[in-house]
Write a structure and sequence with these properties.
Elements (H helix, E strand, L loop, with lengths): L2 H21 L3 E5 L5 E4 L1 H7 L11 H5 L5 H8 L5 E12 L9 E11 L2 E8 L1 H21 L5 E6 L10 H7 L3 H4 L15 H14 L2 E8 L5 E19 L2 E17 L4 H12 L7 E2 H17 L4 E8 L2 H8 L1 H18 L5 E4 L4 E7 L3 H17 L2 E3 L2 E3 L3 E7 L7 H17 L5 E3 L10
Parallel strand pairs: 10-12, 16-17
Antiparallel strand pairs: 1-2, 1-5, 3-4, 4-5, 6-9, 7-8, 8-9, 11-13, 11-16, 12-13, 14-15
The protein binds guanosine-5'-triphosphate (GTP).
Length: 448
């Protein structure tokens, strides 16, 4: 075979590859190590275009920065010359609008083909997510039914969520004594009783309306240790005989619930790590954008059931580009980690604190009205202003701006709530930075 025909063969192969790329039923994007796009098929353009801020698709990481800020760091930290950088990473694009549409999700796999060549495979995962949710509930049911006899505690709750009577399964799983739990709210299984009456009521109402309420998380044992638990609440309606005042007994419908708590610490150790990787931000370790959208969907559902204060804060580091330019990218990363951990420390357990963009964070605050959110934001802003980050022996000082929006009837969905907080943030930036603004309707009136 002559050198010439060899080159021709390669050209034919390359042409075939391009054809495949062009027609593939998934989005395929070839980039340099820094994310500069070299090749992309039409489906990729269709999936990515709505995310582009400037109408261009020149750099994959830049386009995805607002929905998957972790990707750039993952690619940079991947030192092998080739291999899978991430598989099935999920980037949340939009939240659902109640009763109208499913939240949109983009699946991203990133493969390093050569030191300076990456290939991204993009898929629209919107349908998959809806199916997965159903599967999760089905699995929870199956687990509850088929679990071994020793790993679950089953108890009945009265209509307000108080534990009605003792049985040995409670002691076996939770190590509490009868005296410590009977007659108490089921919040006794949460650290420092760290769940509000409102939140307990939410779970009970969810069980009423959906047939069950499912939650996973750390729960406390009577001996002070904690375990990772899957808890399910199911309503039970029972006809009970009511007697009183000498009147003949009548059958009354009494609302009660069954609470099933399972200790799944051991079983979820591996799965938990995998789940963690999907729900936490790669750089800072706090929740990612996807987790925020999942929490928001639940909170908005709760709000529509029983409106009560719900606020959203967007927190953005000021002049962050300057931090990167002055001290370097590694210092910038450190500042982001500092901001994330300070934010985590300042919020409650029921708040969802997440990184939603490059230097942008969000906190979703249930049971918090605009005044409460404003005070919290101000306290946090001052805390950041007063602190500094130590980097290579020097000190980096930075400030933040915060935009707040509050849930009300006119908010169409989480995207809308997010857009309002974003507008408030924009005003805070435009009017000097290092300040807090609350979204204030179309007039965008400024807070004094
Ligand atoms: N170190 C680091 N920098 C990041 C990361 N993600 C985004 N950035 C940088 O954050 C900077 C954001 O810059 P701009 O959007 O111009 O905003 P800014 O400089 O903070 O200015 P204002 O927000 O207007 O106060 C860009 O330089 C990004 O490259 C990251 O994960 N690590």
């Amino acid at each position: 075979m002559s050198a010439h025909s060899g080159t021709q063969d390669l050209a034919v192969e390359h042409e075939a590859l391009l054809q495949f790329l062009y027609l593939a039923p998934v989005g395929l994007v070839q980039t340099s190590a820094a994310g500069e796009v070299e090749l992309m098929n039409p489906l990729s353009a269709q999936l990515l275009m709505p995310l582009s801020k400037d109408g261009g698709l020149a750099n994959l990481f830049k386009v995805l920065e607002s929905v998957a800020p972790e990707l750039r760091g993952m690619a940079e930290d991947f030192i092998s010359p080739q291999g899978a950088i991430c598989e099935g990473f999920r980037a949340q694009l939009t939240g659902g609008i109640r009763g109208k549409e499913e939240p949109k999700m983009l699946g991203i796999s990133l493969i390093k083909l050569a030191p300076d060549r990456l290939m991204a495979v993009l898929t629209d995962m919107t349908q998959v997510i809806a199916q997965e949710r159903q599967l999760k509930y089905n699995t929870a049911w199956l687990n509850a039914i088929t679990a071994g006899v020793t790993d679950y505690a089953l108890m009945s709750l009265d209509h307000d969520g108080r534990i009605q009577e003792w049985n040995p399964s409670i002691g076996r799983v939770t190590k509490f004594t009868a005296k410590e739990v009977v007659g108490k709210y089921f919040s006794v299984f949460y650290k420092d009783q760290g769940i509000s009456i409102d939140r307990m009521t939410d779970y009970l109402r969810e069980a009423d309306e959906d047939g069950w309420s499912l939650s996973e998380g750390w729960r406390m044992k009577g001996d002070g240790s904690r375990f990772w638990s899957s808890s399910m609440i199911v309503p039970i309606e029972e006809m009970v005989a009511e007697t009183g005042g000498g009147a003949p007994s009548v059958l009354q419908e009494e609302k009660r619930y069954a609470l099933i708590i399972r200790d799944i610490t051991a079983r979820t150790r591996d799965a938990g790590a995998r789940l963690n990787a999907m729900s936490t931000d790669y750089l800072t370790g706090i929740a990612n954008r996807r987790t925020l959208f999942e929490s928001a969907e639940l909170e908005l559902k709760r709000w529509h059931r029983h409106p009560r204060p719900l606020s959203l804060m967007i927190i953005d580091a000021d002049f962050f580009k300057k931090v990167n330019d002055t001290y370097g990218h590694a210092a910038g990363d450190l500042v982001l980690c500092d901001l994330a951990s300070a934010l985590g420390e300042s919020m409650r357990e029921i708040d969802t604190v997440s990184r939603i963009g490059g230097e942008e964070f969000a906190a979703l605050l249930p049971s918090t009205d605009s005044e409460g959110a404003f005070q919290l934001a101000e306290r946090f802003r001052k805390r950041v202003e007063a602190a500094c980050v130590t980097f290579e022996g020097g000190e980096i000082k930075y400030t933040i701006s915060i935009g707040i929006s509050v849930m009300d009837e006119s908010v169409r969905g989480f995207d809308d709530l997010l857009a309002r907080a974003d507008t408030a943030l924009y005003i805070a930036k435009e009017t000097g930075r290092n300040k807090v603004e609350i979204w204030n309707g179309l007039k965008r009136a400024l807070r004094t």
